Predict the 3D structure of the following.
Amino acid sequence: MTDIVTARPATGAFAGRALLTLDALGAILLALIWIAPLVFAVWAAFHTPQGALSFDLSAPVTLENFRTAWEGAPWPRYFLNTTLLVTVILAGQLFFCTLTGYAFARFRFPGSDALFMLVLLQLFILPEVLIVENYAMVSRLGLFDTVLGIGAPYMASAFGIFLLRQAFKGVPRELEEAARVEGCGWTGVLWRVYIPAAKPVYLAYALVSIATHWNNFLWPLVVTNSNETRPLTVGLSLFAAPESGVNIAVISAATLFTIAPLMVAFLLFQRQFIQAFLRAGIR
Amino acid sequence: MTDAPLLDRIESRKLAIYGSLLVLPSVFMLSLFAFWPTVATLWASLFSKGTVRRPSQFVALDNYEYLFSDPSFWQVVTNNLIYAGVTIPVSIGLALGMALWANARIPARAMVRIAYFTPTMLPMVAAANLWLFFYTPDIGVLDRLFGVFGFSGVNWLGQPETALGSIIMVTIWKEAGFFMIFYLAALQTIPPDLKEAALIEGAGRWTYFRRILLPLLMPTTLFVMVNALINSVKLIDHLFILTKGGPDNASKLILYWIWEMAFSYFDRPSAAAMTVLVLIVLGLLAVLQFAVLERRIHYR
């Protein structure tokens, strides 16, 4: 042990620097591997199928793929549907989770603990696993093939309830009491004290919710049946199905413009996105 | 009895009523889309599949027996176990490595972080489309790459030996960057003095990692692990694009199988029985999480 300590200053510093460059190399290499699929998609989207697959750097650049892809499916409709979908889900989640989070954070009522446990259990009972019965339920409610039908199972999210309960619990009681003295009712306290205090949590939750539901696929696939309601993900999967006989360059082009809005948003607000995933994830 | 306690009691009763009114909307929604479907699934799994001539009838556990005697059930369960058994440790290990690198002083650190995290922001369906490029036989990137070393073309998605592995690769690619951010956050809460102290004590990099970093990252690891376990049931979107569970069930996972049972073969009882089994496993996981982990790990 002692000889390592005495030997440390010289070799330690040297080893430290050598490892640092090795680290950098490894990190950058892994980053290149990680981004490669996206890079290849960009490459393919701007070249003819032959040019894309030959990896010939001098192959001519073309925008033809984007035109073909854009004309191949009702994309504006899909974009609209996805936008509507994430908006409806987020609005529902904000409403349901705020009320319930507030109740669990500040009120005691018979069965509140048991109910809270039941809600937490939904963190594990994924809507994805219950697709068959949820499908039956949505059909029964007459919501099959509607945007509301895609959104409804996600609105009372256990995750959101839990997140907001934690946020509300962190608000000092003095603020609440001050508002009460000023004559606020309980709804007023929620509106004037708790919601403003939880703003960062709301923002984080909103970003995670939008990213999640922008990308969601299986449930929308099950519960939609027409172009009037299909979100982008389902539209893209139909477009890229082998039966549709579209080539890989065109599929790449379609893939790129479907992911573009979220990617641009991510690149512009990456700090907020990453913070959001963190804040929403670490409990 | 004086007036004050009475007023207090009225006040607390009012608050209790107010509180329960607040949870009512969510309880209603959760009943519609979580609690009732769970019960209905359980119930449906005990009945036979109704046909025009023979209406469905109570068959107790026959559906489960049928399920257990079906070789494709065991295949799908095995596939999912392999899928979980590989994706979880590999993506967690990679995530930790990525976080250590993304936290170290290296050039282009911001770019590196973005590169790691970007797949997380993609829809799985879109990710699968990108990977088609890699897996296409002969002309795909992988075959080109291996072709340089003299290997002949492999039909990655079309042969049973490689189909599941190809699916697993895409999942790892998608998940590692997501788990990285949790490690990254955890790493940033570890005071740098610890590392200095360890170095002064003569601990090497590896010792510091194993004896100090890993134990301190344990809560994060467990949190990520629970997430990864849930995802190993949930993440199947790429199956729809890449293999459709084939060839010959080689890459079929449980949730895809449930979907296929219910919506392609209209075999609702089998789908229900399978769903119940998944719910039992997820429920056990929940109990484990609440009972054991919550007590030992302090989440803020």
Chain B has a mean pLDDT of 86.
